[in-house]
């Protein structure tokens, strides 16, 4: 299929495009607002990655693509960016985090219920290590009862990977979330509808930590670190066939796909409320969630320190 890339904020576009081509797809063009990178970056990017076209607008891009992939680091504009593509019937992959506010996730959910094809989120949801663990015979591995997952750097933009990894280990059906303790490195308890429990260790700790999981079942204990060099291809192999129309079955139902983001929002709400247990079902549409614009402003200082 013909792919259009929307925004070039992160390092993901240049890493994903070779994989997209390897999987048989054509990247026909890019569009970038210049909110993070210098204004000249988009033309340089297109030249270096041999992308044929720099689109001047979504109106120009939409007729020429079959699918859009969004890489904005400001998750608060994902719905705004996605709307014209949904209205045009174009499938889309929204890079992590899918959104940082309940109302945005709910709007995306309604679009999917109306027939839109939307995938994305953290690549850790599709990591090979979790897939390999689940592929073992159940009589050998058992059923996950408790799991501990974590990573470093920050609590949402990067921390969402830990939430997604936990979901890849235990599956869908999160009922409630509770902030346990910690400021820079937070400890969070996640409870499923059937009573299973996960513990997350996320947040800023001054150094990069690997994605890690410990799975405790009635039969055994398994531990692994995720090979980050494989996660992008795992994600794209999982979602692109659905977006290309090769199957009508999404790799993960959308209600389950957005549980990591809802879980993170609930964890922040629990922290603000002194560690109260927060049900995902009680999250209000107007919850403040995570501020994408504030994150993007800080991210711009890293990617474009001269403000060009």
The gist of it:
The chain has helices at about 10-20, 40-50, 60, 80-85, 100-115, 130-135, 140, 160-170, 230-245, 255, 260-270, 290-305; strands at about 1-5, 25-30, 55, 65-70, 90-95, 120, 145-150, 175-180, 185-190, 195-205, 210-215, 220-225, 280. It is about 35% helix and about 20% strand.
Number of strands: 13
Mean pLDDT: 96
Q: What spatial order of strands do you see in the largest sheet?
A: 12-11-7-10-9-8-13
The number of distinct structural domains comes to 2
Would you tell me which CATH topology of the largest domain applies? Dihydrodipicolinate Reductase, domain 2
Keywords:
six-stranded parallel β-sheet; alpha/beta; Rossmann fold; Dihydrodipicolinate Reductase, domain 2; globular; 22% strand
Task: Outline the fold blueprint.
Layout: E1 2-6, H1 12-22, E2 26-31, H2 41-48, E3 53-54, H3 58-61, E4 67-70, H4 78-87, E5 92-95, H5 102-113, E6 118-121, H6 128-135, H7 138-141, E7 144-150, H8 160-170, E8 174-181, E9 185-192, E10 197-203, E11 212-217, E12 221-225, H9 231-243, H10 254-257, H11 259-272, E13 278-279, H12 292-303
Parallel strand pairs: 1-2, 1-4, 2-3, 4-5, 5-6, 7-10
Antiparallel strand pairs: 7-11, 8-9, 8-13, 9-10, 11-12
Helix pairs in contact: 1-9, 8-11
């Amino acid at each position: 299929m013909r792919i259009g890339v929307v925004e070039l904020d992160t390092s993901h576009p240049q890493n994903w495009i070779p994989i997209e081509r390897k999987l048989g797809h054509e990247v026909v063009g890019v569009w970038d607002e210049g909110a993070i990178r210098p204004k000249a970056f988009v033309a340089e990017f297109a030249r270096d990655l041999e992308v044929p076209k720099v689109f001047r607008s979504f109106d120009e891009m939409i007729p020429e693509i079959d699918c859009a992939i969004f890489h904005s680091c400001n998750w608060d504009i994902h719905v705004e960016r996605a709307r014209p593509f949904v209205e045009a019937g174009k499938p889309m992959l929204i890079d992590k985090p899918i959104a940082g506010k309940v109302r945005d996730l709910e709007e995306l959910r309604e679009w999917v219920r109306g027939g839109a094809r939307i995938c994305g989120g953290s690549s850790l949801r599709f990591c090979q290590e979790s897939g390999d663990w689940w592929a073992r015979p159940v009589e050998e591995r058992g059923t996950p009862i408790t799991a501990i997952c974590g990573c470093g750097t920050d609590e949402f933009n990067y921390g969402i990977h830990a939430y997604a990894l936990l979901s890849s280990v235990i599956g869908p059906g999160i009922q409630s979330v509770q902030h346990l303790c910690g400021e820079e490195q937070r400890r969070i308890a996640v409870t499923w509808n059937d009573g299973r429990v996960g513990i997350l260790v996320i947040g800023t700790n001054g150094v990069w930590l690997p994605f890690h999981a410990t799975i405790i079942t009635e039969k055994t204990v398994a531990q692994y670190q995720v090979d980050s060099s494989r996660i992008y291809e795992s994600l794209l192999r999982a979602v692109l066939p659905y977006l290309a129309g090769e199957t009508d079955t999404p790799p993960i139902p959308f209600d389950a796909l957005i549980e990591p983001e809802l879980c993170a929002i609930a964890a922040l709400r629990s922290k603000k409320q002194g560690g109260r247990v927060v049900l995902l079902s009680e999250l209000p549409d107007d919850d403040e969630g995570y501020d994408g614009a504030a994150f993007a402003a800080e991210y711009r200082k890293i990617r474009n320190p001269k403000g060009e």
